[in-house]
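Pipeline run #58 for the internal structure catalog. This entry was flagged by the ingest filter as a single-chain record with no existing model, so it goes straight to prediction. Upstream metadata was stripped on purpose; only the residue string is passed forward. Reviewer on rotation: M.T. Logging verbosity set to normal.
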Amino acid sequence: MGQIMAIDYGKKRTGIAVTDDLQMIASGLDTVETVKLFDFLARYFRGNEVEQVVVGLPTDLKGNLSEVEADILKFIATFSEQYPGITVHRLDERFTSKMASFFISQSGKSKKERQNKGLIDKVSATIILQNFLEKIKK
């Protein structure tokens, strides 16, 4: 069994989380500059078996898609061409950034650490992945 990876895609930064090989635990992996995302993925995939990828679906309270969705769809198309053996899923990412900020604030981190947007992106990806794991275990 391989890992599942979650991607919280953003225009500037992308948060990434992965499961263990048994697909039980979601852990934040990294935050990368979006322009370097495919380089990061190529390096990671060389050393790790990833079976599935979950990409956040950015919607507002009314269910309307965010403007970054067009970029996400381009990313998914390119990803699917480069990695046809990896299944791509989508999952609503509504409130994940707010939840991530809350969890970080409760963790005892300094104010500077709490304002680190890269950390928020990585924790958001972890929340997306944990939500996906809960959904597929039902």
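catalog note: Residues 102 and 114 are 9 Å apart (CA to CA).
catalog note: The chain has one domain: 3-137.
status: ready for reviewer M.T.
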